[in-house]
């Protein structure tokens, strides 16, 4: 990639991130400044006061928590907290503008500055996201009563017999993810080497079609439930996204420092064209993987604990090691931890919501952030 293309691509990526910050700031400002939000906040505070008055011990805890402030004072304090979040977002937008100006002047001369700015931007994004989740989501505690979000009950659908799902999963797992199909038909490996992009397109389209055929009725049912109950599902998505970002990136950074390299899965993605890597990682990949490891696998593993463990282990193994292709270094097996914690968060989300689109949204958002970071690293 020449310098001009690199510069343009960097500017586009940063501009998209800036647009996201502007949209977040606009929506957050509209919601928090509305009379309905203020009334809802006041009702929540008043409800907490009334509930605390019913229990002397809870009232004492609530008094310590609120420091004797009235309901109106607590509402004003909460609104000031909203203002702090908006200031952080403004700071993030200024940071984006600085990054764009730095890129225009020349990414080759300012690579180190861009790297430090990217890290600062990521930290700031985590801060804003964490505060927003703590403010918007309902945190269960002894002194602040709240209503726990409950996903809707989904109607059972008539599907294939259980052996079909078991055979289908084993076929995909052994033949595709473990590479046995390419060993049986060496022409596939030759085709993949000669035309990698075309091969990946055909590969993921076939997998997506296979998953949809097996899980089609559940897909349609889950999508309708997801659209009509998004207000409920977004609580699970927000919390799942927060934990998957925290755990996945935390373990990923530590393991990269220890192993001194990336996982095989990340290395393979970085070899693809940038535009295609984004499509695979953010749209097709999560759709196929959630359908297989959460949807189809959940069909014949009914025990919740066993499902979370098995689903997470197989999900991690698929990203790190296969029967036909082992990691170059034994240390790369440590990446099983990174993908394992990711699988745990996604599996727990699916267990709680029973909706494949809930875990798909978390997976897609996480991959979108990871792909953006990988793209920036490639360009820098």
Helix and strand topology:
Blueprint: H1 3-33, H2 35-53, H3 56-66, H4 71-105, H5 111-136, H6 162-177, H7 180-184, H8 186-194, H9 196-228, H10 230-259, H11 264-270, H12 274-300, H13 304-320, H14 335-353, H15 356-379
Descriptive tags:
380 residues; 2 domains; 81% helix
Structure overview:
α2 (35-53) crosses α3 (56-66) and α2 (35-53) packs across α4 (71-105). The chain has 15 helices and no strands. Helices cover 81% and strands 0% of the residues. The chain folds into two domains: 3-136, no CATH class; 162-379, no CATH class.
Number of strands: 0
Share in helix: over 70%
- What are the segments in which pLDDT stays under 50 over at least 5 consecutive residues? 137-146
Cα-atom radius of gyration: 24 Å
- In percent, how much strand structure appears in the residues? under 5%
CA distance, first residue to last residue: 11 Å
Envelope shape? globular
* Series of H and E elements: HHHHHHHHHHHHHHH
Count of distinct structural domains: 2
- The averaged pLDDT comes out at 75
How many helices in DSSP terms? Answer: 15
SS-based class: mainly alpha
What does the largest sheet look like? Answer: none
Short description:
The protein is an all-alpha fold. 81% of the residues lie in helices and 0% in strands.
């Amino acid at each position: 990639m020449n310098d001009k293309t690199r510069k343009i691509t960097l500017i586009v990526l940063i501009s998209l991130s800036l647009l996201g910050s502007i949209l977040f700031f606009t929506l957050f400002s509209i919601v928090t400044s509305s009379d309905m939000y203020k009334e809802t906040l006041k009702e929540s505070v008043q409800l907490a006061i009334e509930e605390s008055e019913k229990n002397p011990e809870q009232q004492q805890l609530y008094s310590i928590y609120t420091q004797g402030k009235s309901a109106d004072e607590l509402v004003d304090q909460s609104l000031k907290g909203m203002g702090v979040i908006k200031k952080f977002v403004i700071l993030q937008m200024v940071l984006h503008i600085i990054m764009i100006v730095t890129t225009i002047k020349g990414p080759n001369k300012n690579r180190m500055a861009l790297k430090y700015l990217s890290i600062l931007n990521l930290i700031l994004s985590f801060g804003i996201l964490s505060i927003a989740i703590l403010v918007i989501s309902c945190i269960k505690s002894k002194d602040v009563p709240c209503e726990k979000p409950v996903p809707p009950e989904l109607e059972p659908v008539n599907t294939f017999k259980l052996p079909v799902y078991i055979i289908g999963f084993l076929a995909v797992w052994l033949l595709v993810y473990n590479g046995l199909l390419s060993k049986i038909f060496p022409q596939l490996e030759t085709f993949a080497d000669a035309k990698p992009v075309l091969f990946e397109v055909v590969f993921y389209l076939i997998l997506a079609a296979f998953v949809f055929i097996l899980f089609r009725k559940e897909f349609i049912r889950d999508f309708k439930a997801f659209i009509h109950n998004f207000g409920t599902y977004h609580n699970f998505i927000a919390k799942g996204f927060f934990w998957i970002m925290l755990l996945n990136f935390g373990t990923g950074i530590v393991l990269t420092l220890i192993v001194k390299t990336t996982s095989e899965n990340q290395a393979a993605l970085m070899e693809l064209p940038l535009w295609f890597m984004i499509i695979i990682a953010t749209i097709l990949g999560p759709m196929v993987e959630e359908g297989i490891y959460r949807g189809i696998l959940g069909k014949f593993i009914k025990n919740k604990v066993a499902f979370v463990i098995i689903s997470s282990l197989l999900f991690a193994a698929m990203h790190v090691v296969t029967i036909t292709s082992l990691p170059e270094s034994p240390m790369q097996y440590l990446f099983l931890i990174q993908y394992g914690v990711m699988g745990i968060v996604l599996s727990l989300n699916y267990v709680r919501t029973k909706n494949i689109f809930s875990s798909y949204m978390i997976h897609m958002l996480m991959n979108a952030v990871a792909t953006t970071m990988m793209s920036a690293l490639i360009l820098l």
